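Thread title: Can someone regenerate the structure for this chain?

I was given the following input by a collaborator and told the matching structure tokens would be attached. They weren't. Posting the sequence so someone can regenerate them.
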Amino acid sequence: MSKKMPEGARKIDFAMLGRILRTLKGYYPRLLPLTAFCICFSAIAAALPAVFVQRVTAIIEERFMTGDWAGARPVIITNLAILVGMYVLSLTSSALYGQLMAFMTQGFLKKLRVEMFEKMQNLPVSYFDRNKHGDVMSYYTNDIDTIRMLVSQAIPTTLQAGVIVISVTCIMLYYSIWLMLVIMAGVLIMLMVSGTIGGGSSKYFIRQQKAVAETEGFAQEMMNGQRVIKVFNHERVAEQEFDRVNNRLFNDSFKAHAYANLLGPIIMNIGNLLYVVVATVGGVLLITGVKNFSLSGMAFGISVLIPFLNMTKQFTGNVNQVSQQLNSVVMGIAGAKRIFELIDAEPEADDGYVTLVNAEIDGSGNITESERRTGKWAWRHPHHDGTVTYTELKGDVRLTDVDFSYVEGKQVLYDVSVFAEPGQKVAFVGATGAGKTTITNLINRFYDIEDGKIRYDGININKIKKSDLRRSLGLVLQETNLFTGTVMENIRYGRLEASDEECVEAAKLAGAHDFITRLPKGYETELSNNGSNLSQGQRQLLAIARAAVADPPVMILDEATSSIDTRTEAIVQAGMDKLMENRTVFVIAHRLSTVRNSDVIMVLDHGRIIERGDHKKLIEEKGTYYKLYTGAFELE
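Best answer:
Regenerated them for you:
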């Protein structure tokens, strides 16, 4: 999450604006300077016609005095032709930079979204624990849209208007400093009004942006929990809560747009009044014959006043354009701050160098690395002296004296030691919050331990590259995540190079094949919305099949059969037993009937292992496990 901005913040963060432009230039090193040139050329071409209007007016004024029109016609036609040419060049340049901006803006947003998504894949799990999913989603919608407005509209409009203002100012100074001083007084009033009203508008636009993220997050949360809302008749309370969030968005949006809609007419009318004042002062200067003070040294006359009035309109109009873009600039920079904070977030640390490779192992136990899939794996361990050794992946996992806290000062695990030998089935039981899932999270290195050691086949898991470590672990969670696509594609998610036949075999192993064949299109049935067209049990069977096709040497089953009815569980259990053959398996279960055949059962209580042994041993001891199993008291 971004740091909360002060309520009255309206200053433009030029450092962040510079980063946006540098990023844009990094994506388009040639197109950005070309576009900027086209914008500046278009602006200058739009300002120069005032010079030719002055020349034509001066010729006409002179001919009225002398009555000699014969020599004036070619000069007037030439200047008019140049004037038309300038307008054509300005139009052509505007059209060109408009196309370039459209291409660059959409390309810029596309690359930003790609960079954001790639960064998200490298963020630690703890990042998503700290940030609401709806707020993260607003990076891709609300914040990206503010950057679109900034890059496609605010920056080019401000640049063009700024160049026009500078060009017109130079021309005005060239013709009459007296009238220029009058215009500058009007501009100061415009800036004061713009700072007062525009500041309030910017403050509420930033608040609106935060309110949009909150509203999107709340709506997503309510959609995900729709069944729970209905079963507990929580609709009215949910509506009231949404009204509260939505009203905040309404109030901030109303005030932001009220200020913004007020600023335009006020600036425009100040410009109109300034036009009248310039015309009046110019008329007084003409009547009184006050000596003109200018860089050109020319006398003050109608030929100066007429183009000056046109330039006054052009000047104030572009000042108004700049003031109107203030909110887009502030909002775009605020959105960019949030996006760049995501991009700059610390990635998941991974200093591992031991990798997982396909291996061929001969009868003597010699290990060689293979390019093809052999069904056997080994850890490739490079050493400082340049040598490489290989260790067969057997699935020996050992936790020794492990301490862990999710939040500093709030310890979750205390001096936990777990020894899982290859092929063993280790079960964790205990009340919710006892630390069962936390242990499996540490084995996956979703989080790093505070103290102790975790070794995998004798190798400290901190030395193993995280992607390779996780490739060796199969994971079936209580909450199943299915992705938009076919049933076959969801099973293949476990191993993307798996063939259709391997996916079918995995489904049979998990006991999912029968229900899949009864679906409208079998394995080609489309799933969407997290597989909402399947039952909870069917979704869980697909998750088990997905783990089966990955064929990992170590399996972690976190309440893997909790959503399956008793009859289905018997079918699945047979497949699970096959799946667990010759693998190290960690099982978390509330149904103690599913862990009876475990080699080791560990009973956890408030982050400590209080009992360990097989089912028979623990029953004989008549301790906590015995009471849990016989129903003397509940897990909770």
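The chain has 20 helices and 16 strands.
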